[in-house]
Amino acid sequence: MSKQFDVVVIGGGPGGYIAAIRASQLGFQVACIDEWKNAEGGPAPGGTCTNVGCIPSKALLQSSEHFDHANHHFADHGISAKDVKMDVAKMLGRKDTVVKQNNDGILYLFKKNKITFFHGRGTFVKAAEGGFEVKVTGKAEESIVGKQVIIATGSNARALPGAPFDEINILSNDGALRIGSVPKKLALIGSGVIGLEMGSVWRRLGADVTILEGLPTFLGAVDEQIAKEAKKAFDKQGLKIELGVKVGEITNSKKGVSLAYTNAKGEAQTLDADKLIVSIGRVPNTIGLGAEAIGLQLDERGAIVVDGDCKTNVPGVWAVGDVVRGPMLAHKAEEEGVAVAERIAGQHGHVNFNTIPWVIYTSPEIAWVGRTEQQLKADGVAYKAGTFPFLANGRARALGDTTGMVKFLADATTDEILGVHIVGPMASELISEAVVAMEFKASAEDIARICHAHPSLSEATKEAALAVDKRTLNF
Ligand code: FAD
Ligand code: NAI
Fold first, then answer.
1. Ligand 2 near 327 CB (within 6 A)
2. What are 299-342's pLDDT values in tens digits?
3. Domain residues for 435?
4. Which residue owns the Cα nearest ligand 1 atom 36?
5. Atom of ligand 1 at shortest distance to CA of 173?
6. CA of 373 to the centre of ligand 1 (A)
7. Are the beta carbons of 301 and 156 closer than 8 angstroms?
8. End of a domain among 351, 384, 401?
9. What is the CATH number of the domain that holds 458?
10. Are strands 417-424 and 365-370 parallel, antiparallel or unpaired?
11. Rounded distance, CA 246 to CA 213, Å?
12. 145 and 17, same structural domain?
């Protein structure tokens, strides 16, 4: 007789493991199935985010930033650091340790919350009496039944046609996070989030980095003024970004990778590199899920079709995170996981798609929430804008990092905050205040009237809110 559960979660990334924890908190008997293996073949829950995404990329960004500071910024503080060397193997080892701490943390959370964890692949067998039968294929094979099933199977890197990932020369995010020595020449295709973060890591370590981007605009989803400021900073750092290119044939040989492309002027070019990272977006992952066994509807991209509540076309089956529509972000996956568990419990789980923050962890960091100035123009919304540069912020000067600004966009009539955009130091942390403000439908004046600690970067947020009403105090 198959083991029975109230809720079976397929996938143990941020969408899945968080859904499992919330469902358990709500009193359900919960199982979570995840197939990710560590180097020893053991379980490594946490999904893309923990194993080859958010966490390891931030570990490498931190290490490479320390290296960059030691080489270029310590001297300003009177610290001499000659012959600074990077031990790449040690850096990668530290990153692996950080990943393992997170894997172990999730295994501990499964135990703490009395969630039954299965290490293996979950495949739908059929709609069974009282729910759905799911086969788990791991070291052994067994079948379990869930009254309700939450699918959180994530996404995989998209490859360029004719240039499959070999993870030696042509790298996805996985290979990009474990390059064993600093490549002399590194090429990237796609100047989106991964392209900029990974390009930054290896540039700081000394690689000659070129990013080829198909679109003519840089970071089209970002507020234009913020994207322009960020581009200026990246140019200054020596990160070469070519926009409006058309990538042609890619030749992969023992010597490296040769890329034929046409530039924005239509001229034929060749780029030779030791390694190529392809970061052109990700595709939803339903490989081996057995979607057809229960008649689960997928769209033309392979994403599971869901409604606003993450319900699929099969009653009792839900899907969250990268495998469904919406931004491919860990915190979006988590929020959907929590909301679905609450809906199963008859509660009113809710995800506000208008207040999901975005962060690009480059230096300067880029973070935003809400609409951009170009979106407000396109939507015909009357708005007021206010900006404040970090150059005029005391804490930023003390830190020695005055790049960038905070920008507020507020409704011209009601003063409600419609968007906040930041490029500069610790933008990833500063954006939270804006998310809270927007969630509570605050006005720019609300933020302008709140006492912010001095000296702090958050004073730039207050000042940008004041700027909406043209009354900055320090600029
Ligand atoms: P995933 O994290 O992909 O997890 C899915 C899990 O399901 C995996 O463990 C997979 O093995 C498992 N699985 C799949 N099919 C089955 C099956 N049939 N049976 C059992 N298990 C299965 N987002 C951010 O918000 N911030 C960041 O800083 C950030 N950085 C990133 C950096 C990189 C390099 C990349 C690639 C992504 C980054 N992301 C970031 C995006 C983030 O990783 C994803 O949005 C997030 O992981 C999605 O969570 P998920 O639970 O939907 O899927
Ligand atoms: P992306 O969507 O951010 O960027 C892809 C870029 O590649 C785009 O600029 C696109 O125009 C370009 N492109 C697509 N096809 C191309 C082609 N054939 N030739 C040249 N350029 C081409 O995708 P990316 O960087 O792969 O990241 C995937 C997702 O992972 C992100 O969208 C994000 O959701 C998530 N992520 C989030 C991070 C964060 O939150 N800090 C960090 C890294 C990834």
1. yes
2. 999 999 999 999 999 999 999 999 999 999 999 999 999 999 99
3. 355-468
4. 53
5. 34
6. 30
7. no
8. 351
9. 3.30.390.30
10. antiparallel
11. 8
12. yes
Indicate if 72 belongs to the active site: no
pLDDT above 90: residue 1:
no
pTM for the complete prediction? 0.98
Between CA 329 and CA 22 the distance in angstroms is 19
352 alpha carbon to ligand 1 midpoint, in Å?
20
Q: Do residues 43 and 36 touch, judged by C-beta distance below 8 A?
A: yes
Please give the C-alpha separations between residue 182 and each of 84, 91, 186, 277, in angstroms, as whole numbers. Answer: 15, 12, 9, 13
Share of the chain above pLDDT 90, in %: 98
Residues 7 and 149: beta-carbon distance below 8 Å: yes
- pLDDT by residue (tens digit) across 428-450? 999 999 999 999 999 999 999 99
Count of domains observed in the chain: 3
Q: Read off the tokens for 467.
A: 């700027």
Q: Which amino acid makes up residue 166?
A: D
Domain boundary among 304, 327, 351: 351
Tell me, using a 6 A CB cutoff, whether residue 192 lines ligand 2: yes
The answer to whether 46 touches 60, Cβ cutoff 8 Å, is: no
Catalytic residue among 69, 350, 421, 454: 454
Looking at ligand 1, which atom is closest to the CA of residue 122?
19
Taking the CA atoms of 454, 455, 457 and 461 in sequence, report the sign of the dihedral they define. positive
pLDDT tens digits along 260-288: 999 999 999 999 999 999 999 999 999 99
What pLDDT, on the 0 to 100 scale, is given for residue 2?
A: 86
Q: What is the pLDDT of residues 140-162, one digit of tens each?
A: 899 999 999 999 999 999 999 99
Give residue-wise pLDDT tens across range 356-393. Answer: 999 999 999 999 999 999 999 999 999 999 999 999 99
User: Does residue 247's CB lie within 6 angstroms of at least one atom of ligand 2?
Assistant: yes
33 touches ligand 1 (CB under 6 Å): yes
